[in-house]
Amino acid sequence: MNVLIVGLGSIAKKHINALKEINSDIIVYALRSSQNAAQYLDVKNIFSIEEAKQLSLNFCIICSPTFNHLEDLNKVISLGTPVIIEKPLSNKLNFDTLLEKIKKEKIKTYVACNLRFLDALNYVKTKFIDGNHNSINEVNSYCGSYLPEWRKDTDYKKSYSANEDMGGGVHLDLIHELDYLYWMFGAPVNSSKILMSKSSLNINAVDYANYNLTYDNFNANLTLNYFRKDSKRELEIVFEEYTIRVDLLKNEVYKNNELIFSSKQQAIDTYLGQLNYFIKNLNKECFNDANEANEVLKICLK
To answer: Over 72-95, what HEC string results?
Structure first.
């Protein structure tokens, strides 16, 4: 199997490591912008789409900076292979022409939101959510962490996360939360948001986001931030008879404060599950294609 990676940062390396775990014989090519680009493992560097067209590729993975996603997606469409786009799909809207091109060329797409493969969320979705919306009274989702500690030995103010013009912002970085709410509960009837960048981090990208999603029988509230030092990532679902709480950092589920599910799965393992799912469905439809991810992006940005 031959795979092309566009972009070779930390997320790309997670995908590459997962691919090698699936099959050590997979050949990974990286589309690089510089002839002097550093080598990573046994990844083969190439320097143009024309070179890529000479390869027998099974699929591509776009892991470039967010603001480059649409440009890079436009390039790899010409290869005619299935494409994984690392989340978020983009940092802007209004790319209907590109979506039409994907449809016309029959390009299979998948936008990588790996929390869909977290054991605790899958347990709750299957056991408590599917077919059970009428008994839900309230949903609360929260993710707060400290941006300066995300990338060790790096000035956080120079990272893409901290810079709006590079596609940064907590609402885009942590679009995982909006995505899993959409995946678990479907499209909201209505939504509203508050986006701010007023914290002591002193960055120009959004560092606080709050979303209210209105469903037929309940409301979901989502809060995201870059400035919480004691990290917290939780989902709370208040049913008529009990409350379910998911600790995403520990991969645990509680019912009325009683532990009812736990998994030893680590966050990095979700990349493996995600790629296995995509490879298994290479010739079939799979969830979270570019159109579905665009609907989530509309909630995020509109």
So the answer is: HHHHHHHHCCCEEEECCCCCCCCC
